[in-house]
Write a structure and sequence with these properties.
Radius of gyration: 55 Å
Structural class: alpha+beta
Order of helices and strands: HHEEEEEEHEEHHHHEHHEHE
Number of helices: 10
Distance between the termini: 153 Å
């Protein structure tokens, strides 16, 4: 205290030094000026206002503003995800929010969640007073509108994804028209059932529809299998017909060429060609026969034939019998081949 009095008042302490007052004022001003430093976290965005009016925004890091009351700063988490449950939770349901009227005049008990984040910090601060309640009201209104345009069976079965997408799109359009600075990340239906009083009957109907769908799928699978098999058979028959036609054409072409060659030989030597054709024809006709043709003209001795001559012939041509095998065959005896 004595040092303070000496510093302010001098040796006698009766009068305040002008320099001391200036020093104190300078220190106070420096502390006041340094109070304008502030730190913004990586997930935040700072909104600076000058005498209550929006001035500018600042990103993460160490920043400076004019000290209060000239400028004030408000930090908004812009990357954090916020979630709102509508219709109650599994422990505590809220029928006033969850019961909705569908397009076919049925009632559905629908509970869903909305995930959102801040997209524009200045608009988020200055446009909406209670962000969570505003987002919740918009979400409930959008979902009721989408459900009111949809059928109950569609929502309960295959329409959950489209309903979520339509509700999110309608929510975003409404919030953008307000200039709320909020981005809807996702709308997720947590539970969609008929009212508890009639849920058993609706489940029976749902099971019946599932059985009908299964029977329809089986019939379509059978139809596709039969049609594909029929198409395969038709293609196979067509290919076989084309192959037979090609074979017949080639065989006819070959026969025509052979006939032309034989005709050319016939014109050169008619008698020899007729004899050769006769012999070849008789050979083809009699090669598998067990008949024996005997020309008895000029024969003077008994004709003795071996037993093998009368056995059934195979398709392979038999060897020509030698005189030793047929005994002393008389002249004019021929065994068919």
């Amino acid at each position: 205290m004595a040092r303070m009095r000496n510093f302010l008042g001098g040796p006698g302490g009766d009068q305040i030094r002008p320099g001391a007052v200036a020093a104190v004022a300078a220190i106070a001003f420096a502390l006041w000026a340094l109070s304008g430093l502030y730190l913004v976290q990586p997930n935040e965005q700072a909104v600076i206002t000058t005498f209550g009016a929006y001035s500018r925004s600042a990103g993460p890091g160490l920043n400076y503003r004019l000290p209060s009351p000239i400028e004030r700063v408000e930090k908004v988490p812009v990357t954090s995800l916020n979630r709102i449950d509508i219709g109650g939770t599994s422990e505590a349901a809220d029928p006033e929010q969850s019961l909705m009227l569908t397009g076919d005049e049925n009632i559905i008990d629908l509970k869903f969640s909305v995930t959102w984040r801040v997209a524009d910090a200045p608009r988020f601060i200055f446009t909406i007073r209670d962000p969570e309640e505003s987002v919740k009201a918009v979400a409930e209104s959008a979902m009721r509108e989408v459900v009111g345009r949809s059928q109950l069976d569609y929502i309960l079965t295959r329409g959950r994804g489209p309903v979520q997408a339509q509700a999110a799109e309608l929510m975003q359009q409404t919030l953008d028209s307000w200039g709320a600075g909020v981005s809807v990340v996702e709308v997720q239906i947590r539970n969609a059932d008929p009212p508890s009083e009639v849920i058993a009957a609706f489940r029976d109907v749902f099971n019946a529809s599932q059985d009908a769908e299964s029977a329809r799928n089986e019939s379509e699978a059978y139809f596709n299998r039969v049609v594909n098999e029929a198409k395969g058979d038709a293609a196979r028959i067509t290919q076989a017909g084309e192959a037979y036609r090609e074979q017949a054409v080639r065989e006819a072409t070959g026969e025509t060429s052979r006939f032309d060659q034989i005709y050319a030989e016939y014109r050169a030597a008619p008698a020899v060609t007729r004899e050769r054709l006769y012999i070849e024809t008789m050979q083809r006709v009699l090669q598998n026969s067990n008949k024996v043709i005997v020309d008895s003209d000029g024969a003077s001795a008994p004709i003795i034939l071996p037993p093998d001559v009368f056995r059934p012939r195979t398709s392979a041509p038999a060897a020509t019998a030698t005189p030793a095998e047929t005994g002393s065959a008389a002249p004019g005896v021929r065994s068919s081949q």
